[in-house]
Amino acid sequence: MTSSLDTLPKIGAPAIRALHGAGYTALRELVGVPRADLAKLHGMGPKALAILQAALEEHKLGLG
């Protein structure tokens, strides 16, 4: 199943809330965002970061 760049992949609710709180509502908005910056968000853990990175890699993109 390929992820859409217009939505966020299935990650935990705390991570989704963290991304929405920081203004991110679509996967495409995370392209080039430093991984360390996302890791600082409350509720964002290593598993969620790995899922986001993998979803971006499906589109030949990635975190910063």
TrEMBL record:
Gene3D superfamilies: 5' to 3' exonuclease, C-terminal subdomain. The keyword DNA-binding applies. One of its GO terms (molecular function) is DNA binding. Keywords: DNA-binding. This is DNA-binding protein.
